[in-house]
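ok so I'm stuck.
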Amino acid sequence: MKSNEIKRLFEQFEAVSFEEDGLECWSARDLQELLDYAQWRNFINIIDKAKESCKNAGEKIRDHFADVSKVIEAGKGAQHEIDDILLTRYACYLVAQNGDAKKDQIAFAQNYFAVQTRRAEIVEQRILDYERIKARAKLAETEKMLSGVLYERGVNDKDFAIIRSKGDQALFRLNTAALKRRLGVPENRPLADFLPTVSIKAKDLAAEMTSVNVQTKDLKGVIPIEKEHIENNRSIRQVLLKRGITPEELPSAEDVKKLERRIKSEDKKVLRKKK
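replied:
not stuck anymore, here's the structure
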């Protein structure tokens, strides 16, 4: 998610918040629009799941979800009432957690409501951290899938490790061990846990390309598959270089495992500071 998009969403979420009896609240109808749900009936399903999560957490639903009415313009000056729900920050957090995380608006909301602050830059940093965690998880999933595809084509675990390392060398102009030393990555930890998001996504795309092409071209055996993976990483490197990014010159990033623990800790604080 781009910085200007994060700031735009931050301003929108801030603009519709209000205080009710000294408590920070959001209208479910407003939240429906912010989270890009076209139909109220679909959004109610998400709210019902959030209520169940609230109940499972040992909280009283009525403390966080208050049924109210809202007057809207119906055309030609007419007005009519529609059902609405007042949501606390905690309720909004649960709604976001039960939404479709593939939507940018939901990903933003999950982080916005988890952070007990009104500062846009803190929310933005959390979203960037969140996206890096997601990118790392996606790479792990892609590499697991690729390993399965290659195993069926005569590549064992040792060969797969060598193929990955040669892919790294094509992408970074350094093999995995050398890049680890350069970035200060512990020998027993995966390189990707310390790479910036763009490098993680670069590795992921190259691995996806290898998986597709190995099957499309019906490649078998270590040598042709290794060649394919090297070429895919070279192609990705060329794209990065054309955009002014030299991947081996990017600094290392925070250990993604520590990042995950911090995000989970912040989420727990939301559960402890519900009102």
